[in-house]
Structures are given as C-alpha cells and as structure tokens.
Amino acid sequence: MQMAFRTSTARPPRDPEYIEAQMWRLLRERRLSALKFRRRVHLGAHAAAFVSQSAKLIVECGLRAPSDLDRDAWLSGQGFQVLRFEPSEVTGAPARVLTDILAAARTRGWATAFGRSAAS
C-alpha cells in the first residue's frame, strides 16, 4: 500500500495576509448583523484594512506599529473608531472578535438595515 503525503501550500497562521483573509471571511457580505464592511479602503493619505462607513468603524488585524499612532489619531479626528485585533485573536477567538466589533458598532449608534437602532 502506497502512502500519500499531502503537501500543503497553506500559509502559516502568523502571515499577515492569511490573518487579513480570515478576518475578511468573517466580515464580508454583511455577515455580521448586516453591518457592511469594505476591504482595503483609502481614507485621505491613509489605508484601512476594513471599514464600515455606516458605523464609522475601522477594523485592523496585527500588531500596532509606531506609525499607526498618527494614522489612528487622524482617523479618529475624521470620526472613525479604530479597533485592532491581534492575529491570535482572529484565528483563536473569532466569535469574541465579532462580538467586540458588534458592541463597538452599537455604542456608536449604528442602525440596522431595517431602520431600527442596533442597540434596541
């Protein structure tokens, strides 16, 4: 009997592109209570991984870099709240990540697609 070995081309879980793809899998197509996100959005001179215009939320995955402080301050000045999740959170506790995102949207007064406040 011949043994078949599977060669994997999967990316390691710490690869930033892999983590971003996992987060997009969770957020795309209004999967989170009809909250719409766009991926890789340019805002002024800055780029954001995931943006919900209706909730004024930006979701980032990865560790904070020193250059992110100025960027986050500018985005905050534009009315956005920046949520940042570590790679281990995205891959290890996706339900908690989604709960945190939805809670942030609700505290910002995000309304559902049905016209009711998401907080009610």
Question: What can you tell me about this protein's structure?
Answer:
- The protein has helices at residues 16-27, 68-77, 87-92, 94-107, and strands at 38-43, 46-52, 57-61, 81-85.
- It has 120 residues and is an alpha+beta fold.
- Strands 1-2-3-4 form a 4-stranded mixed sheet, sandwiched between helices.
- The protein is globular.
- The N and C termini lie far apart (62 Å).
* The top level CATH class name: Alpha Beta
Q: Which segments are poorly predicted (pLDDT under 50) over 5 or more consecutive residues?
A: 114-120
CATH topology: Endonuclease, Chain A
- The CATH homologous superfamily is called VSR Endonuclease
Topology:
Elements: H1 16-27, E1 38-43, E2 46-52, E3 57-61, H2 68-77, E4 81-85, H3 87-92, H4 94-107
Parallel strand pairs: 3-4
Antiparallel strand pairs: 1-2, 2-3
